[in-house]
């Protein structure tokens, strides 16, 4: 077994094994145990009591984080010429149509989100093999296929993210940066968890939110007591 580094020993001493912390405590603690030299992402993992294999227990949605993600989100807007000016003004990094479709066919995916219009989805369908594995395929359920592309661009730039439960019944998301003050961390976490709560499938039985863990890039996870969310 490899030896723990000095930082790992320091971190190990700050997290009590098996303890579930309050959301406020977890947000403070994650700042203490993050030792990366870069501004690490603040990540949340929520294990749900659902069976994702069943269509009526699939949990997916979007949430607008009140304090943003702290990331520079690169947005490509594939739209008709009459919408290009509005999309550019809203903050899209790349705006166009056919020329970007050709670039993507060639393997270009230097973007984080693609926003488009319903009438254009026919052209984008052929890009599924490139966009699908990277989670870049536009979807009406996530608000990235819409007639109002300018509004969608603004929302994404301001901190709107989409999420989906994985095969193991866990929802993973980045909800900010470790450099955020604890009040912003708490605000984003509460909004994210509240949104998941609203999406509880009627077919889901028993405990819906089984566990919540907060972590940063390359840090250990900190278990949160779900009962403390509303107290934060």
Question: Which labels suit this protein?
Answer:
232 residues; Ribulose 1,5 Bisphosphate Carboxylase/Oxygenase; 2 domains; Rossmann fold; 8 helices; 4-stranded antiparallel β-sheet; single chain; alpha/beta; 9 strands; 3-stranded parallel β-sheet
Task: Summarize the SSE layout with pairings.
Elements: H1 6-12, H2 23-33, E1 41-48, E2 60-64, E3 75-78, H3 81-90, E4 94-96, H4 98-105, E5 113-116, H5 121-124, H6 128-131, H7 149-158, E6 160-164, E7 170-177, H8 182-198, E8 209-216, E9 222-224
Helix pairs in contact: 2-8, 3-7
Account of the protein in words:
- The protein has 232 residues and is an alpha/beta fold.
- It folds into two domains: 18-68 and 160-231, 2-Layer Sandwich (Ribulose 1,5 Bisphosphate Carboxylase/Oxygenase); 75-158, Ribosomal protein L1/L10, domain II (Rossmann fold).
- Helix content is 31%, strand content 21%.
- The protein contains eight helices and nine strands.
- It has helices spanning 6-12, 23-33, 81-90, 98-105, 121-124, 128-131, 149-158, 182-198; strands at residues 41-48, 60-64, 75-78, 94-96, 113-116, 160-164, 170-177, 209-216, 222-224.
- The strands form three sheets. The chain has a four-stranded antiparallel beta sheet. The protein has a three-stranded parallel beta sheet with strand order 4-3-5, with helices on both faces. The chain has a two-stranded antiparallel sheet with strand order 2-6.
- Helix 3 (81-90) links the parallel strand 3 (75-78) and strand 4 (94-96).
- Helix 2 (23-33) crosses helix 8 and helix 3 (81-90) packs parallel to helix 7 (149-158).
- The longest helix is centred in the C-terminal third of the chain and has 17 residues, at 182-198.
- The chain is globular and about 55 Å long.
């Amino acid at each position: 077994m490899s030896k723990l580094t000095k930082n790992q020993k320091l971190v190990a001493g700050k997290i009590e094994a098996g303890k579930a912390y309050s959301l406020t405590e977890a947000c403070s603690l994650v700042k203490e145990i993050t030792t990366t030299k870069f501004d690490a992402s603040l990540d949340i993992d929520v294990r749900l009591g659902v069976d994702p294999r069943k269509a009526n227990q699939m949990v997916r949605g979007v949430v607008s984080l009140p304090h943003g993600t702290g990331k520079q989100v690169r947005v490509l807007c594939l739209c008709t010429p009459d919408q290009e000016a509005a999309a550019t003004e809203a903050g899209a990094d790349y705006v166009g149509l056919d020329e970007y479709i050709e670039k993507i066919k060639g393997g270009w995916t230097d973007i984080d989100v693609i926003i488009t219009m319903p009438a254009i989805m026919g052209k984008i369908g052929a890009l599924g093999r490139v966009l699908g594995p990277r989670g870049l395929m536009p979807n009406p359920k996530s608000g990235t296929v819409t007639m109002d592309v300018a509004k969608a661009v603004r929302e994404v730039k301001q901190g709107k993210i989409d999420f989906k439960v994985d095969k193991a019944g866990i929802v993973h998301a980045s909800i900010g940066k470790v450099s955020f003050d604890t009040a912003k961390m708490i605000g984003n976490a509460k909004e994210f968890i509240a949104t998941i709560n609203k999406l509880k499938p009627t077919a889901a039985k028993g405990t819906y939110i089984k566990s919540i863990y907060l972590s940063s890039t390359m840090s250990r996870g900190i278990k949160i007591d779900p009962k403390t969310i509303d107290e934060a």
